[in-house]
Amino acid sequence: MVGMTTPADVHEVRDPELPGRLLTVERDTLVPLLRGRADADFALPVAACPGWTVRDVLAHCSAALSRVVESRYEEGVFSPESNERDIAERAGWTNARVLDELERGLTGAGPLIAKAGGRLDRLALGEWVHAGDVRVALGEPGAYGGAGLPYALTLLSQVTGRPGHPPLHADLDDADEPVRLGDFSGERPPARYIGDGPTLVRLYAGRPVDGVSYELAGVDAAELNIFGD
């Protein structure tokens, strides 16, 4: 049971420190796990990112965080083409060096994301989602869950609070209180979700939910995807 309470209007009040807390939790759980894996594991394919290996995903994540830390935002940054260039630039690095950069980024990006006024909050959430993608590829438990889930759900509520995003009332099996996501301005009646937190994250991240038991009414899953634009 996740000991989390989420006020109904959580997405209306941004917590600038929340992305950094999420990244710190992920640093303390994911990085030690990865440092204990064999080099062959870094070559495993990641189903959520077709054409990418575990190493590619980690290189993408470490590069994105480094850009935040170093304030490098040239034209086209974070586009698919930019992401591929970032991965290619790290092709000659050892896996340990990629992990070193990732650890530095997970440590140092939080304060800068906090100062960005919400512009980079989705990036922090995406880093955490990619950590789940890597766990799936490695066969590790806790993908899209674990210690970071309460922070991720609250951040997801804030990120989806922008105008026009479908409102959704989520009754979670693993949270103390319901979670409200999306735009609750009254333009559209809220959809309803019943299930666990990791599955809700998968839906919003556009990840497969095959074989998982949940209920979703009043909205198509594709409308929820925050990384599809």
Automatic annotation (TrEMBL):
Database matches in SUPFAM superfamilies: DinB/YfiT-like putative metalloenzymes
Domain Mycothiol-dependent maleylpyruvate isomerase metal-binding: 26-107
Pfam family, one: MDMPI_N
GO molecular function (one): metal ion binding
NCBIfam families in the cross-refs: maleylpyruvate isomerase family mycothiol-dependent enzyme
Protein name, UniProt field: Mycothiol-dependent maleylpyruvate isomerase metal-binding domain-containing protein
